[in-house]
Amino acid sequence: MPGAGFRAFAAAGAVLVLTGLAAQAPKPDPSRFLTQPLVTGIFTADPSAHVFDGKLFIYPSHDFEAGVPADDLGSHFAMRDYHVFSLDKIGATPVDHGVALDIKEVAWAGRQMWAPDAAEKNGRYFLYFPVKDKQDAFRIGVAVGSRPAGPFKPQPQPIAGSFSIDPAVFKDTDGRYYMYFGGIWGGQLQRWATGTYTPKDVYPAADRPALSAKVARVADDMLGFAESPRDVVVQDETGKPLAAGDNQRRFFEASWLHKYKDTYYFSYSTGDTHFIVYGTSKSPYGPFTYRGRILEPVLGWTNHHSIVEFQGTWYLFYHDAQLSGGQTHLRNIKMTELKHRDDGSIETIDAYFEPKK
Ligand code: FUB
Q1: What is the CATH number for 183?
Q2: What pLDDT was estimated at residue 5?
Q3: How far does residue 114's CA lie from ligand 1's centre (Å)?
Q4: Looking at residue 354, what is its pLDDT?
């Protein structure tokens, strides 16, 4: 996950903006972006979108300026709470439902509340969130509420057997739930090669299979895993797992799973090459065959998305750093339509038009 570097923004004609937000950087020309920020009152990122009770609910990270110096482990992403947003129709301004969970309420948490997700079962709502524990290892927690916007009450311990970041929970058409998760670099997946946490980074050689996201079926009570997490293998068209050195295509972070016409689509960020890409499978466990790009790089280092159908149309939720003028830890969520072609492939979206040199 995020390095200190980010796509440089050098906009000719950029103007200095003074907003109520922390960032006071030059604001890029809005015409360089396919869409405009959904939320402008606070910084938001990593939008996980779901339809609950006929409304669109968005579960983002809540970025803020913590004053922590940037490093390659993403220490500057020092988030401390979550807000939930909802929209009852496309084009409406999202409603901010306020703080749904604060790090102070999570007894085992140390620092850095990263990308969350949510699920509903039998009228109860579950917020899944990655946060470092007091030993500085990322774990995934779950908090429970009676409304989609929260508030959510955290369980006293992280999910048993959970690790790393970016949980994404998919409800299959047969009523089973699966959690996809993991992220490398700051997300610590490379510290779990032995099955237990070691604070030492171990990466496969460039020609070996890449580190994989993980998937586990969620237990009936939604509070844990029903099985040990398995690798989410992404392979090329010949059936060979993508190699660790295949930076344009291999998994880095930001898992998402959606199902379209009986096909499972696993999408994710390639991290240091900044794409959102996808593979397809006939099983929620994969293996997934790499199919292509969904989203080209955005303004800011990270790229993170979700995909949801709402009122018969599919949407991509994503983020960039437009409002902060490119400060990669101060992001804003966005949405745009996503199109599946007749052959099941997805049309690639380019949402940021680089300044002309
Ligand atoms: O927001 C913190 C981290 O940045 C997320 O967990 C990653 O996916 C990246 O977007």
Answers
A1: 2.115.10.20
A2: 40
A3: 6
A4: 80
